[in-house]
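re: ur question from yesterday

yeah so i grabbed the chain u mentioned. its 464 aa long if i counted rite. heres the sequnce exactly as i have it in my notes:
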Amino acid sequence: MRLVLGGGAVLVAALYGCRPTAPPPSGFTLLFLDRSPAASLGGLSWAPDPEHGRLLAFDRELRVVRQITNPRLATPMAVTPLGGTELLVTEHTGEGVVVDTMGDGRVVREWESPDVASLYAAGAGRVAATRSPYYVPQLSTPEPDSAPLIRMLDTLGRPIGGLATIRRPATPLLDYVVNAGAVAVGPDGAVYYAPLVRDEIRKYTPAGQLSWTAKRGLFPGGREPDPEFLPAKGADLRLKKALVNVALALGPPPGGRLYALGSDDSAATRLRVDVLDLATGAILATRHLGARETAVVVDASGVLAVFDADSLVARAVGAAPSTREAFGPALALPDLAGDTVRLAGFRGKVTLVNFWASWCDPCREEFPHMAELYREFDRKDFEIVGVSDDVDSGPMLAFVRKYRPPFPILVGGGRMKQLYHYRGLPYSVLLDRQGRVIERIFGFGGAEEFRRLRQTIANEVRAP
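ran it thru and got these structure tokens back, copy pasting raw so excuse formatting
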């Protein structure tokens, strides 16, 4: 599916909520979109749209003026400027992806996560990486007491040092939960950190000294218990914990402030934004957000405002045909009979290209839905092409014999990920009649995703 919580679903499901209403006035810089920090670059506010695997650029009137999609952008969770034209994107699974916002938004480099999953922020020519609050394993391997709390990387993603040390909880298996947190880096290199499960925001100087610590006073008497296990329900592990900090963002100069998106309750279902003075950590203002207020912006005078993120993002859903990119590289592969099939031969039809493999469990769940979808539309209008990325033909053929797909199956021979740069399987690309990308679909999102996909295909088939 487009938005995947993975192993951290129990902990971070509350970090995703509905979005709110109303056309915005002019003159705004976006700070947060849903639970993700935005970034200012090139006069635009950039924000991730994880549900659609893309980056969106908003002008000062909060109109979507650009969007960037790429197979390497599966589920982007955060963005931060990295140089004059580049954005460093945090993937849900912790990879760092650097995108050049000029031209077609190409990916210029990427790196693996130094933690189970990392969250990145950049400034002053270096990158700070924390344990991501967007993907939190219930259990983790205990870390050494000397492990850094914040890892410092160069702009190529290589480790160059660390700040502070981790906080060891009473149960070492909860190291990741206790030390995951939001991060921001100032233009002077100062690092701001806010742990996911503690009422705390810290500033570290560029040299690594703790400058200040701010608290909101969310816990009576200042007593904050560590997360602890509750009795299991069946096979499900349960934790008692308080989700406190969601994201950090630095406001635009002059007179920039630190903005902390945090929780008003223990589950991050009611949110607040606190405005902090950069020099002292003093909380200057607090804005409590309604259930549908998830686009947080600031105007030139520093006044906060909130809007309906749904309505903002909806303007960008389904790019106009004139802005759609061509699918590539050109696909020409053997089918199960050994005959070469070229994707270009399906021009004139709306086409779903689905990459799968026999060892992929979600692919097994997805195939019956694709067979049903295939039978619903006329062959003159719609086609599905399944591309196996199995290296061994034996398991691939056994998979085909079991599921008997009614659509063509092509043999990728284990080379597809290298060619098309997707992060995982299944991965699908919906193409219009001219072979241009309508939508990329990462993973399997179940029946609801296929209901949406069916409607998108029906609309495209009816389009003139």
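noticed a couple things. The first helix runs from residue 9 to 12. also Helices lie at 9-12, 175-179, 309-314, 361-376, 393-403, 416-420, 446-462.
anyway ttyl
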